[in-house]
């Protein structure tokens, strides 16, 4: 892992490497188990200021149609007006508004998350996982983080009551980010 004293070397513009990154989510199903999924198509950029991390920024655009829970029927339902309304709102976006270093290798990234034309501020605690030069000469950095949101906050309210009490789909959804980014030349 890279120590905090080498952050100045990381200063630059980065592009998310979607082939080596994951943007996923976890929601409770039927109150007894978790369903995991991910978005397979997204783009993003980051500006890293190693001397002043608070001047760093990130922007991510996710294609809603790329949702993948390994079940075509469920994916179709999630794309429908009951959930993401993909035809009307084809993208989910995140634009940072603040980056705060909270430890030697930890950062809180706060920003505007927009789902279905509803924008709310969320904070994602990230852990810097390190930097490396890959076999192709690219400078890479890695970050991992997660946060929990209420889907109702974004107008995603569909649910079904269970005979035993409770609901089919949890309101709370954990968003997971495993990010590899490549420094621009």
Structure write-up:
The chain has 185 residues and is mainly beta. The chain has a single domain (4-183), classed as Lipid/polyisoprenoid-binding, YceI-like (Lipocalin, Beta Barrel), CATH 2.40.128.110. Helix content is 4%, strand content 54%. Strands 1-4-5-7-8-9-10-11 form an eight-stranded antiparallel barrel. A hairpin with a 3-residue loop joins β2 (22-29) and β3. Residues 1-5 have low confidence and may be disordered.
Overall tally of domains: 1
Determine the fraction of residues in helical runs and give it as a percent range: under 10%
CATH architecture: Beta Barrel
Number of helices: 1
User: What do we call the CATH homologous superfamily?
Assistant: Lipid/polyisoprenoid-binding, YceI-like
Q: What can be said about the biggest beta sheet? A: 8 strands, antiparallel, barrel
Counting helices, strands and paired strands, the structural category is mainly beta
User: What is the overall silhouette?
Assistant: elongated
- Report mean pLDDT, rounded to a whole number: 90
For the biggest β-sheet, the strand order reads: 1-4-5-7-8-9-10-11
N to C succession of SSEs:
EEEEEEHEEEEE
Instruction: Give Rg in angstroms.
Output: 18 Å
Oligomeric description of these chains: single chain
Beta-strand percentage range:
over 45%
Q: What is the first-to-last residue Cα distance?
A: 23 Å
| CATH fold title | Lipocalin
Enumerate the spans where pLDDT stays under 50 for 5 or more consecutive residues: 1-5
Q: What is the β-strand count?
A: 11
CATH class reads Mainly Beta
Summarize, please.
The chain contains one helix and eleven strands; from the N terminus they run ββββββαβββββ. The protein is mainly beta. The protein starts with 11 loop residues before the first strand and ends with a strand.
